[in-house]
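User: what does the whole thing look like in 3D?
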Amino acid sequence: MTSQFILFSLLKVLCVFSVLMFIVGNAVWVERKVSAFIQDRRGPNRVGPFGLFQLIADAIKGFLKEDFTPGHVRKAYYWLAPAIVMVPSLLTVAIIPFGSLLGSQKMVIADLNVGILYTFGIVSLAVYGIVLAGYAARSKYPFLGSIRSSAQMISYEIAMGMSVVPLFLIACDPKGIRDLGNGWREAWQTFLAGTSSLNLSRLVAWQADHCWLIIYAPLSFGIFLAAMFAETNRLPFDLPESEQELAGGYNVEYSSMKFMLFFMGEYASMTVSAALLTTLFLGGWTLPIPGLDRPASTIPLGLLQIAVFLAKMLIVEFIIIWVRWMWPRFRYDQLMALGWRRFIPLALANILITAVALWIKPGH
Amino acid sequence: MNFLPWLILFLPLCACATITLFTQRDRKLSAGLSIGAVVAGFLFSILFISSSGWNLNTELTTTWLSVGDFHIDFGLRLDPLSLMMTLLVTGVAGVIHIYSWGYMADDPGFSRYFACLSLFTFSMLGIVLSNNFIQLFIFWELVGVSSYLLVGFWFERPAAADAGKKAFITNRLGDFGFIIGILLVWATLGSLNFGDLEHKLHADPSALGAMATTAGLLIFCGAVGKSAQFPLHVWLPDAMEGPTPVSALIHAATMVAAGVYMLCRVFFLLNLPGSNALTVIAAVGGFTALLAALIATQQNDIKRVLAYSTLSQLGYMVMSVGLQGRTPAMFHLTTHAFFKALLFLSAGSIILALHHEQNIWKMGALRKKMPVTFWTFVAGTLALAGVWPFSGFFSKDTILAQALEQPNPALRYGFFILGVLIAAITAFYMFRVVFVVFSGPARSDGAGHAAESPSVMLWPLRILAVFSLIGGVIGVDALYNKMFEPLSDEFHYALWQRLLLPFAEAPFAATLGLLAAAAGFFAAYRLYTNVLTDPLPEKLGSTSQWLRDRLYFDELYEATVIRFHDRLAALANWFERWIIEGFCIGLVRGGTDLTGRMLRQVQSGNLQTYAFLFALGVALVLYFVLL
Amino acid sequence: MTIGLNHYLVVSIMLFCVGLFGVIVRRNLLVIYMGLELMLNAANLALVAFSRFNDNLDGQVFVFFIITVAAAEVAVGLALIVALYRKRQTVHAEDLTTLRL
Amino acid sequence: MENFFFYFFAALTLIFAFLVIANPFSNNPVTSAMFLVLTIASLAGLFVLLHAYFLAAVQVLVYAGAVMVLFLFVIMLLDLKAEEERHIRAFGLGAGLISVGAIVSIFLISLLKAPLLSNPAPIVHGDTLALGKLLFNQYSLPFEIVSVLLLVAMIGVVLLSKKELK
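Assistant: Here's the predicted 3D structure for the full assembly of 1258 residues, as C-alpha cells:
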C-alpha cells in the first residue's frame, strides 16, 4: 500500500465520479430529447443551444427550491433515503474496467477477484434506498411502491445473477487466454496479473480473445437486459414509482434537492448498468480491431480504449432510454410471474445447457 | 419326529389365539379350529408313540430364560407317564370338544367357549409334558385360569361367577403351599428339573434332610388344591356350575387328575427315608374318599352326585399314591377318566334333554326315551362301581391289592377296609342315581317329554362307553408298571388272561371288591326302585340332613376362614389406604406435586425466561467444558 | 502487537453476547430474530478466523453453509412470525405465552 | 494499516450490533434492521481482512441483500404502528446481564488461558476458485443437502404464507 497507489486510486475515483456525474446529468437531457422526438415534439430548447444547458438550470432549480419536509414523515429515514439511493451505483462502478492501461495503471478502481459477486452484493443493497424512502414517507402510495420495489428487486436479482453464471462458465476456462505469439500473451498477463476466476477483467480479456459473449450467450444477454430494467426501476418495470397508479411512488413526498438525488440515483444506476452490460456482453473496452483488442501500450491508445468503452456504454444507455418511451408498463403480477416463472427457470436451464455443452465440447 | 410333541403342545394355544383374535364371529370356524387342534394333537400323539414307541425317557429342551447362572429350560419330558397322559388328555378332550359342539350349539358365547377350551387343553398338556417345576407351576396356574374362565363361563349367572371365583381362590391356597414347596426344593437341591432332582435324590436320599416331610407336604398342597382333597375339596362340587362338558373335562377327566399326576411325577420327593409325607397323603386321600362318598349318597343334583363321586375317586387315587402305589393310582386315573367323562357326558345328555333340569327327583323313566344315554350311563356306573369286567373293577382292585401290600398291619387293614367300604358306598349312590333317573315313574313333565340327544353327542358317549368297558384290560397298567417298577416282571398275558388276572393275583381283594359292589347295588335296588321321593332321610334323620348339606363345610369355612379373611382384608385395606397410599405414596406424590408446582413457575411461556435459562445452561456447559 | 486469532475471537464472543443479550432483553420477536442473526454472524466470524489462522479452508465452507441455512431459517422464521401476527395481531414475546402452564 | 482496519471494523461491528438490540434513540425495528445491515457490512470488512473475499461478498449479498430486505419487508408488512414503548423490565435486564456476563467471562478466561496463536503469513485465500473446488469436491454432499434444505424451506414458507390451507 504505497502512497502512490493511494494517489492514483484517488485520481481514478475522482475522474470516474466526475465523468459519471456528467453523463448522469446529460442523460436527463438526452432522455427528454429522445422522448420529445418519439412523441413528435421539441423537448427542452430554451436554455442554451438545443437546450443543452438544461442540466445547469435543473441543478440550480433543485438547489434553490424550498426543501419542504412533510410533518408526518420519519425524519431520519426521510433524510437518509435519498443519500442511500445514490450509493450502490457509485460503489458498483468501482470494479468496472473502463479501460486497459494508462502507463502502468489499470483503468479500474478496484480489480476485485470476486468481481461479479461484489457487483451483485452492492446491487442488492440498492433496494434499501427505495424501501426506506417509502417507509419514511409514512403514507400509502410510497409505502406500496417500496414494498413492490423490494419484492421486485429481490426477484430479478436472482434471475440476473443466474443469467451471468454461463458467462463465467464459458470465459473462465482455467487455461485462459490463447497464446497467439507476438507478445499477445505478455500484454494480457500484465493486465491480468493477480486476478482469478470471477474477475471482470478476465471476462474482457476472454472476449477480446474470442468473441463478444452476447454471441455465445444470447439468452443470458436477454435475461440480463430485462432484469437490468427491473433493477433500475425503469419502464417497462417501473412499478415502484408508476405515476398513474402510485402517483410517483416513493418520491411523492420529496422535493428539491432530495428529489434531485432520487432522480440522479436512477440515472446513475442506469449508467452503471449500461457499463456492466458493456463489460459483460459487449467486450468492454475492446474492439475486434488489431491494436484495440489488447491492453494498450501507449497512452493515446489507452485513452482511445476508454473512449471505445464510453461509446459502447452510451449506446446501451440510449437504448435503455429509448425503450422507456416505446414500451407500456407491465402489470405487477405479470412482472412477478415473468421473473419467477419465466426468467428463473430459463436462467437455470441456460446454466445447465451451457455446462453440458462445455462438457461435451471436444478437446475440453 | 421331535417336533411332534411341540406341535401337540402348541396347536391348542394357536387355536385359542386365532379364535380370540380373528374368528370370534365365525362360530363354526372357531369350533372347527379348536376341535381340529385337539384332534390333531391326539393323532400326532398316536403317530409319535407309534414311531418312537413307549419306552422313551428323554427330554426336549430349549433355553427359556437365564438369569445369571440360573437357567430355566422350557422342556418337554417324554416318558410313558407323560405320553399316556398326553394321549389321555388329547383323547378325552377331543371327545369332549366334539360333544361340546352339540351341547353348546345354542350358546351365544360359542367361540369364546372353544377358545377357553383350547387354552385349557394347552395348559393341561403343558402340565403333563413339563420337565421342571417352574414350567409345571406356570401351566398349573394356567389350568387354574382356564378353569376359572370355563367354570364361570356363564358369568351372568351369579352362582357360576361365584363358583369360578371359589375354584380359583381355593386353588390359590393350595398353590401357595405348592410354590413354597418348589422354592424349598430349589433352595435345598439347587435344581428344578425333574430328571436332575430324581438323580440327586437317588444319589443322596437324605439330601433334603429334616425338610423331607415338609417339602413333600408342601408340594402335596398343590395336589390338595387341584385334586380337591380335604380340606380344599369344597370348590369342586360348586364348579359344576360350568357347562356340563366342562365339568366332564375339567372336573372329571383332566384337571383334577393333574394333582394325582403331579404326585406320581414327583413321587421321588415324597418317597424319601424319614419322610412321613406319604402316610399323611394316604390318610388325607382315604378321608376325602370316604367323606365324599358319604355326601354323595344324599345329593339330589345329578351333577353333584357325580362331582362327589369324582372327589371320592380322587381320594382313592391319592390314597393309592400315599400307599406307594403309583401304578394303581395312574391306572385308576386313566380308567376313571374314561368312565367319569362318560358319566358326565351322559348326565349332560340327560340334562339337555330335560332342558337343564339337574334334580334327579324330577327325572325318571328315561330308560325307554333315551336308550343310548341309558346304556352308556349304566356302563359308566358299572365301571365306577367296579363291576367285572368293566375297567373300574380292574383299577380299583389294584388299589385294594396295593393296600394289602402294606407292611404295617394297622395301615394295611385300615386302608383296605376303608377301600372296600368306599367301594360299597360308591356302588350304592351310583345305582341310586340309575334307578331314580331311568326307572320308576316320570316325576316331571320334562322327564315325560324327554327325547334322545343328537348323534354328535351320542357318538362320544359310545366311544367312551367302549373305553370304559375295555379300559382295564388294554395294558394301561402294564405300561405304568413298567415305568414305575422297572424291576418287576413284565406282564405278558392274553386278553382273557387279563380278564381273570385280578382273581389270580389278589383273589381276596377282587372278591371283596365285587361283593362290595353287589352290596351297594342291592341296597340301592331295595331302596330306590319305583319311589317318588328319597326314603333315606326318614330313616337316617338328621344325618341325612348333614350329608345333604355337605357336612356344613362351606358354612364352617364361611364362619372361620372367610371371616378371618375378611378381617385380614379389611386390615390390609386400611393399611393400603392409610399407610401405603396415604403416607408412602401420598408423600411421594405430594413431593412430586410440590416440585412440579415449583418447576412449572419456570414454564412461564415467557420467551425471555426460556432464553435466559437456555443461556445459563450454555454457560454451565461451557464452564465444565472450558474451565 | 499484531492482530492474532484471539483478537478476532474476542470480537466474535462480544458479538455473540450482544446478540444473546438482545434475545433475552428485547421483546419484539423481530428484534429477537435479529439478535439470533447476530449470534450466527459471531459464529461465522469465529469460523473464518479459525480458518484463516489454521491455514484451512474448511471453516469457510462451513460459514458458507451457515449463511445458507441462516437464509432458510430467516425465511421460515419470518413466515412464522407473519402467520403468528395474522392470528394474534402481535409480535411481542410477552403476549405470546400460550405455552405457559 | 491492517491493525487499524481491524480495530476500525471490529469497533464498527460491535457498536452497530449493540445499536441493533439497544438503540437509545429509537426503538423502531426498522432502525434495528438498518443497523444490522451495517453490522453485516462491517463484518464483511473483517472477512476481507481475514482474506475471505468470497464470504465477504456472499455475506453482503445474502444477508444484507436478501435476508435483511426480507426483514424490512416483514416489518413493513406487519405495519407495527404502536412502536414498542420503552420500559425495560428489570428481570429481563438482569437475566440478560447475568447470562451474558457468565458466558463472556467464561470465554475470556478460557481464551486468556489458551496460548496465543502467532499470526502466520496469509496462506489461505478464501477466493471463489479455492472455495468452489472444496465445495464441489469434498463438500458436495452437504452442498446438495443444503440445496434440499433450501427447497424445503421455500415450500414451507409458501405454505405458511398462504392465508388458509386447504
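In plain terms: Chain C has one domain: 5-100. The interface with chain B takes residues 20, 23-25, 27, 29, 32, 93-94, 96-101 of chain C (CB under 8 Å).
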